[in-house]
Amino acid sequence: MKRQLSDEDAAFRQRMREFFTTQVPEDIRTRWAAGAEEGMDDLIRRSQQLLNANGLAVPGWPKEWGGQDWSTLQRQIWHEEMQAASVPPPLAFNANMVGPVIAAFGSEEQKQRFLPATANLDIWWCQGFSEPDAGSDLASLRTTAVREGDEYVVNGQKTWTTLGQYADWIFALVRTDPKAPKKQMGISFLLIDMLTPGITVRPIQLIDGGHEVNEVFFENVRVPADQLVGEENKGWDYAKFLLGNERVGVAPVGSIKRKLADAKTYAASIATPTGTLLDDPLLAARIAELETEVMALDLTVLRVAANSKDGKPDPASSILKLRGSQLQQDVLELIVDIAGPMGLQWAAGDELPGWATHSTPTYLNFRKASIYGGSNEVQRQIISGGILGLKG
Amino acid sequence: MDFTIDDEQRALRDAVRDMASRFAPPEERDKVPTGPRAHDAKAWTALAEMGLLGLPFAEDAGGMDATAVEVVLAAAELGKARVQTAYGEALVAASLLAAAGDQKALLEKVIDGSALVLPAFAEPMRAWAPHDPSVTASGGSLSGVKAPVPIAEVDAVLVTACEGDQTGVYLVDSPQVSDGALKLDGTAATKLNVSADDLDAALNLGIVALAGEALGAMDAALAMTVDYLKTRKQFGVPLMTFQTLTQRAADMYVSVELARSTVLYGAMTLAERPSDNATASRVKVLTGRTGRHVGQEAIQLHGGIGMTAEYAVGHYTTRLTAIEHTFGDTRYHLGQLARDVSDHAEVDVFA
């Protein structure tokens, strides 16, 4: 048992910190920290291309496709330092989802065609999994793909397609065998160009007023058969791999810690009749408790990162997802409460700082965190079934 | 950061596990002790013979030259087996005797188990405030009341007392403890040559030892609960058929895993910086909260059987409640952390 980082890891941490705080342009980081929606795609693209040029965009991938020979702990440090410096992280759909799937199950031709462009965000991917009647019960999806010669003909509807308005391609789960004995067994994993005729993207406005997710409709969309990943009807396996193979970045600890530190600065800037809000015992106790809980999460991330089993769905990820989303939401809730009456206004001005006027929409927006990527109820089910052996 | 235990630590853990299994309390109707622990002299001797009382102390004082990490691993096994002793308290006393420098003979007896010396810091009708006792000292004699004293059969106690505006730690030989209280009325005492930092370091060691015991108790309570959900049938099906129960068991598991990381980290940190009060307080707050969550849910998920004395699960909850209120409760430690919240931008676990 050892508390400190090894000399090697400490040097690694320093190298990451230096890169993220000195080599990533200040305007990218301040605008990202402020949570600007306007021009967000541009920030993500610039950031990922810069990271990729320096070998920092897809460290978890196989080495021949741009990955790094890092330990899981080092990847964890990379991720935390990136978040601590408010650097827009590589687009998850590319770096954490479709990239690893293509690298693991794609054909050589697909790897050549897609992986370099995916790492460099020359292709912006979106995820076509959820459907109106297939949310937590993802395997109930109904979008069909019927083979006709060298093509699949796709019909159906996807929803909650995050940042789909910027996407060049979509990776979609489609039903290729409606007669399969189990609903999980008739699903395939298709790569589809968003410019293919028959695709319509329609925005969904969310409670924070923002446009982040979309509905995507497929009407007789003809997809070349060489865009099928792996084997037909094995898509569910690839989707499980995609959702469960990653422990790094599952809990956004770096970002939570940064927000909590920001919250203290905000609280210290708010006057009360006797001092500042940071001197208020109730608020200070709440911050102290959150710091303790975040520390426990931070440590748990480091502890389980060291035991990572690559490539297998890993129920320990569920602990991180569950607690990470809860604490992320708790900290945003704290910031709304610090903003107090200023949070009633959603547009910044000379008198009202942006952090305060963004606080309510941001808080509302991040209620999503305990729903997406497997809701917290699903995570509890994975823990109770997969770890504790409680099978209903 | 590395949380894995080495071969020597594994051997220690296995030996303590084996020893603890021999002293676990009975689970038979009318034979199960309830309420605060009673002193078990045989178990205490076994602890001493295994060297557990000397784990974090120097070899030349009769100790094992190990650290708080080993203390936590040992305490967790005691907690799991429900061997309820004054282990954490004895380590606080031994730590102060070691710091005093001139108490070598007594320290050796504490470590070899021939003398039971415990701290008596708590005072009736006073919130926990280790540096601000109401007992007073004057010219080597003490006045006031300490209660509750952890165990009545002590050979000596260490008492905190104020002389003017100075808080000191005093050794009282052969104290007369009655109904859990030690009444001091001009009682002769020896002042230990220890600083406020030494007192903090001693309490922090006690905190982390108790946190280790709590971790073992929570592990066991969770395991019993999971097992019960698998085997107990109602409505013709096992309880694990009901998601309202399994989802709550999952939350217990998450709580325990976060506590495990925190307790082990706390031990590693305090081994390096014994008077790092903030880390000790975070360990205390987190295990306090987790102990309540896991202890309460363990009883609730069992239902009525969890309320009975002959079934172990509720005893874990009893012990977790006692641990939370020893060496400062969650309110006290959260207050300490809240007071210092503007001292740092964030908590850096590598600092």
From TrEMBL, chain A:
GO cellular component, one term: plasma membrane
Domain Acyl-CoA dehydrogenase/oxidase N-terminal: 6-120
Organism superkingdom: Bacteria
Name of a matching Pfam family: Acyl-CoA_dh_N
Annotated Acyl-CoA dehydrogenase/oxidase C-terminal domain residues: 233-386
Entry keyword set: FAD, Flavoprotein, Oxidoreductase
Cofactor: FAD
Family: Belongs to the acyl-CoA dehydrogenase family.
Protein name stated in the entry: Acyl-CoA dehydrogenase
Organism the protein comes from: Metallococcus carri
Organismal lineage: Bacteria, Bacillati, Actinomycetota, Actinomycetes, Micrococcales
TrEMBL record, chain B:
Domain named Acyl-CoA dehydrogenase/oxidase C-terminal: residues: 202-340
Residues in Acyl-CoA dehydrogenase/oxidase N-terminal domain copies: 7-101
Organism: Metallococcus carri
Keywords associated with the record: FAD, Flavoprotein, Oxidoreductase
SUPFAM superfamilies the record matches: Acyl-CoA dehydrogenase C-terminal domain-like (SSF47203), Acyl-CoA dehydrogenase NM domain-like (SSF56645)
Source taxon at top rank: Bacteria
Name of one Pfam family that matches: Acyl-CoA_dh_1
InterPro entries per record: AcylCo_DH-like_C, AcylCo_DH/oxidase_C, AcylCoA_DH/ox_N, AcylCoA_DH/ox_N_sf, AcylCoA_DH/oxidase_NM_dom_sf
Single Gene Ontology MF annotation: acyl-CoA dehydrogenase activity
The name this protein goes by in its record: Acyl-CoA dehydrogenase
Signal sequence interval, chain numbering: none
Known cofactor(s): FAD
Family, as annotated: Belongs to the acyl-CoA dehydrogenase family.
